[in-house]
Every structure is written in C-alpha cells, then in structure tokens.
Write a structure and sequence with these properties.
alpha/beta, 10 strands, six-stranded parallel β-sheet, two-stranded antiparallel ribbon, 289 residues
Length: 289
C-alpha cells in the first residue's frame, strides 16, 4: 500500500486490500469501488425517505443567479469527527465564492457489509452522525446506503440522491446538482488500477455530478491528475479547495483514545462523546492502520 493511501479522506467499499484514514474516517481500500455492479439499481433495495428539512435555495445573491448544489460525503463515520463537519463549511465557502448556491449537505454512512473489523453497526454510526449534525444548518444524514442489504457504490449513492432531489417532492428549477465531497486521498485511490471502475469515475466527474476535493498541505492534485490518463481526461473540472486550518483529527485516533480511557473532548461534538459513553463503544484496543 502506497503511503499516500494511508492519509486522508472519504470513500470505501467491498473486499479489503488495505486501509487509509479518511478526513477522520478509517476506510478500506477495496477491490472494486464500482466493478460490475457499478451504477445499477440495488438488488432488494430498501426504500428510505431522504430528509430535506435543511435544504435552502437562495436563488439569487447580490442580484446574481446561482447554480444550486448539494454536497455528499460518503464514509464510515466511525465515529464522526469535527473534521467531517468542517469539510462541508470549507466547501460551502469556496463554492459560494465561485457563484454556486449550496442548498444543503448529506453524510452517507457506509453499509455494514463494508467488512472492516473496527466498524461498529450502522445503527450507532447513523445515530452519532445525527447527533453531530444536529446543530448544523445544512448537514443531514442520509440513511439509505446504510440500510441496504449489501454494499452500495459511491456513484449509486449520488444517483439516488439526484433522483430524490430532482424528481421527488424537493424538486426545484433549475436542477440541483449533486457534488461528491471528499479529500485528496480519494483522488489518489482513483489512480490505482482496479480500485474504482472507470465508468464510475467518469460519471462522478461528469457535469451531472462533479467533485469537491478538500486537500491538506502535502497534497498535489494537479500533479496526480496529469499523471493518470483517465483522471487527466475527466478531471479538468474538479474543484480543489485547500483546508485553511489543517489538522490530524481522525476517527481512528478518536477510537484509540477512547480505548485507552482518554478524553476526546473538542475532537467531536459533546453529544457524540456522550453517546459513545452510554453505549460503551470503542472500549477495546483498535486497529490504527
């Protein structure tokens, strides 16, 4: 496993070949983020209504028409950290300056079939994400992915959100674009053959969706895109945003601190800390890979 794949942020799936830290979430590098199942409907799909209570369309700001977008972050959220929440704020600031109207954001906790030994049941991760987002005026929890009978690809999560937002009761004109919010190491994994299906990468980078990548100081996204033929072809519209206040908060480090009986105050919201305590989560020694 390349050292770069052990650092930073946000996707996952399927059979394990290694792991890396994802903006506060430990995620597993898998054999196929898309593969043969890539964007097909989920077999035996469990329906779950998308929360829309925090969506807000501004239409115009300073007299200018703005393009509505929703941000979606996928990951383990095991547990959610302040950096998960911070990503949305950094992205919103950057997109607003570019003329976009960020109408809301979603976290999508990974399905239990993710098969990471440190992954606790989704019922706990969903509840912690709800607690973490309760004081946010834009972040909501989409439980759909976690409720499915098997793992779900990232592109399918984005497509389902697009369907729910633009064909359901939340539909607005103009169409709301669903952007994938991630960190630099997700882009790193897209350059590794066999990790993502090419067609999934193409769809995620397309004008139907798109990527907002929050980077840390050591990341060099332009260099990575230039060095990978597929990413060079599809990645010209990626929105790269530097995290102005980088830090090393991660879910794996929080779990390790809890396992050692240490405080995690100021690393995740107090409500999440209280939930971890009540449920006696993360008490055993954890894998810090």
């Amino acid at each position: 496993m390349a050292a770069a794949a052990k650092r930073a942020c946000g996707s996952r799936r399927g059979k394990k070949t290694g792991s890396w830290i994802a903006c506060g979430t430990v995620v597993t590098l898998c054999a196929a983020f898309g593969s043969a199942q890539s964007s097909s409907a989920v077999e035996g799909e469990v329906l779950h209504e998308l929360p829309i209570d925090k969506l807000k369309w501004k239409r115009k700001v300073d007299g200018a028409n703005r393009k509505p977008v929703v941000l979606v972050a996928c990951g383990s959220f095991n547990p959610p950290t302040l950096m998960h929440l911070r990503m949305f704020e950094v992205a919103k600031d950057a997109l607003t300056k570019r003329g976009w109207d960020v109408v809301g954001g979603y976290v999508s906790p990974v399905n239990d079939s993710y098969e990471k030994k440190t992954l606790i049941p989704s019922k706990h991760r969903i509840e912690m994400c709800k607690l973490a987002a309760e004081n946010s005026d834009m972040i909501m929890v989409d439980e759909w992915e976690a409720k499915q009978p098997a793992y779900v690809t990232t592109i399918r999560v984005l497509e389902r959100l697009d369907e729910a937002l633009n064909k359901g009761k939340a539909a607005q004109e103009p169409k709301t674009r669903v952007l994938f919010l991630c960190g630099a190491d997700v882009i790193d994994t897209m350059a590794i053959p066999g990790v993502w299906a090419d067609r999934d990468i193409e769809k995620i980078f397309s004008k139907e969706h798109g990527i907002v990548c929050i980077t840390r100081e050591e990341a060099n996204i332009p260099e990575l895109l230039e060095a990978t033929p597929l990413l060079k072809r599809v990645g010209k519209d990626i929105i790269v945003v530097d995290e102005p206040v980088p830090n090393q908060i991660s879910s794996s480090r929080l779990r390790a601190e809890v396992a050692q009986g240490h405080s995690i105050k100021y690393l995740t919201p107090d409500s999440v800390i209280q939930y971890i305590g009540r449920q006696k989560l993360y008490k055993r020694e954890v894998d810090r890979a």
